[in-house]
């Protein structure tokens, strides 16, 4: 599509059309080009938003496991005080350790998803730079 616009503006330049007509056509092509760039930026932002949602869900899982660990550790302390040396608190402590491990793994997964996010406008910036070069060459 962009190549067609480039070719069509080149072929009209040699036809002897008035300068005002050429400028109007150029502005129309630039407007079409900018609309395309905006659509590209929207698509890239949507793709990155999906990744961000995934990272948020992993952080929510980490919060759930951390809260579970907190409750289990409280139960462990409770059993330790009541039982004064009886083994029921060891079971609650083991559950707390497992919950902490789950929270750590979930947080690690969320952080790794956040690190995988790309600059949302990287492709758009590259394409816009190419378009600017094309416009300069055609003038």
From TrEMBL:
On whether Transmembrane is a keyword of this UniProt record, the answer is yes
| Pfam families tied to this protein | Phage_holin_3_6 (PF07332)
Q: What are the protein's UniProt keywords?
A: Membrane, Transmembrane, Transmembrane helix
Transmembrane regions listed in the UniProt entry: 55-77, 89-111
Tagged with keyword Transmembrane helix: yes
Q: What is this protein called?
A: Phage holin family protein
Q: Write down the species.
A: Roseibium aestuarii
